[in-house]
Amino acid sequence: MTIITDHLARLAPASRGQGRLVAGSTATGAEISIPYIAARGAADGPTLWVTATVHGDEVNGTLAALDFVRNLDLAAMRGACIVIPAANPLAFDARAKTAPQDGLDIDQQFPGAAGGLTTQRVADRLWREIERAGDCLVSLHTLTAHFEAKPYGVYKLHPDGPVAEDVLLRHLSFYDPSVACLMPTVKAAGELPGNISGAIDYQFQALGKAAFMVELGAGSRIEWPYVEQGSAGLRRTAAEIGMFEDRPAPGGMLRKVLKRRHVTADTGGLFRAACTPGDILQPGSPLGVITDIFGDIVDTVTFAEPVLVIAARRDPVVATGDRIGFVATAWESRTLQSA
Ligand SMILES: [Zn+2]
Q1: Same domain, yes or no: 268 and 246
Q2: What average pLDDT does range 56-72 have in this prediction?
Q3: Ligand 1 mean position to 106 CA, how many Å?
Q4: What is the whole-number distance in angstroms between the Cα of residue 53 and the centre of ligand 1?
Q5: Helix, strand, or coil here: 264?
Q6: What distance in angstroms lies between residue 286's CA and the mean position of ligand 1's atoms?
Q7: Structural domain of 188
Q8: From the CA of 215, how far away is ligand 1's center (Å)?
Q9: 292 and 167 in one domain?
């Protein structure tokens, strides 16, 4: 039995508990620990995991997860819900994406390494709890503070995983996303460099269970509408897997992104966005302009084909190669049927 499953077993039906998973200590002797909240329903049933801030500055997810779990009607709930409000505690405390000890992206490290670097040990400590229990996992993220984006979904399809794409799209529709992005699991142009298979949702899917990511706006600040969108979506996911009676209707039409890419600045200067997330830009229509430090326009950023804007940069200061937008270049509309 793991610490959390043991804790759940000791909880009275329809009650909630909390605790910490210890993954080590700092130089001054403070615990490196991962806080958790475990909520037990009135009857047995499925287990939902919600992890927030594997990237430590993506705080809308933390608030959405807390609002969700603290407002559950446990007397009407079957099964259990486990929330990890700060899945990367050292990064969270540092208000940064990664922990200052090693700079590793923890969402590229799962299932972790018991004898590894600090971040790998934290991943291992959390994963040993997760892999033993759970039917569905939602990994909450945001973009970086530099961007503006509406909430959207990201999912991967594990090559050996039996989880159907429609199951994931149905879940994602509950979060009213601007788009749902199928993320390639092999290296693809236009994506950030990294080890996709080390993502917590990908590893969970490798166990044959549904898992996906929800991006709730931008990092390092509260965006209340997106926090509420996230907590409402989690409630529907819980109902969808059978924790509540009111099985939700899917969100209807969903824009599924087949190809996406970051747009990077070809020249340094000040970027001014000329669009809003969700806009479709026709060829020649600008994402924005870059001026030099004297205010003269030195570049107008346009596309040769229509693009759907997922996110646009709001921090104007850019160097050559900085990300100024995140766009879909191929997408399709999917209508989701009620089950
Ligand atoms: Zn993230």
Answers
A1: no
A2: 98
A3: 10
A4: 7
A5: strand
A6: 27
A7: 3-251
A8: 7
A9: no
Is 228 in the same domain as 284? no
Instruction: Calculate how far, in angstroms, residue 56's C-alpha sits from the geometric centre of ligand 1.
Output: 8
d(CA 7, CA 320): 51
12 CA distance to ligand 1 middle (Å): 34
122 by DSSP, 3-state: which?
helix
Q: Read off the pLDDT of residues 77-109 as tens digits, 9 standing for 90 and up.
A: 999 999 999 999 999 999 999 999 999 999 999
| CATH number where 7 lies | 3.40.630.10
For residue 245, what is the DSSP state?
A: S
Q: Look at residues 251, 274, 292 and tell me which one is the last residue of a structural domain.
A: 251
In the chain, the amino acid numbered 270 is L
User: In angstroms, what is the span from residue 142 Cα to ligand 1's centroid?
Assistant: 5
Count how many domains the chain has: 2
Helix (H) or strand (E) holding 56: none
Q: 203 CA distance to ligand 1 centroid (A)?
A: 16
Q: Of the candidates 219, 251, 283, which is a domain's last residue?
A: 251
Residues 6+ apart with CB under 8 A from 155: 165, 168, 169, 172, 180, 181, 182, 183, 201, 212, 213
Give per-residue pLDDT as tens, 211-225.
Answer: 999 999 999 999 999
Same domain, 9 and 25: yes
Q: What angle do CA 252, 216, 208 make, to 5 degrees?
A: 70
From the CA of 339, how far away is ligand 1's center (Å)? 31
pLDDT tier, 187 (very low <50, low <70, confident <90, very high otherwise): low
The CA–CA distances, whole Å, from 84 to 107, 261, 272, 331, 332 equal 14, 30, 37, 33, 33
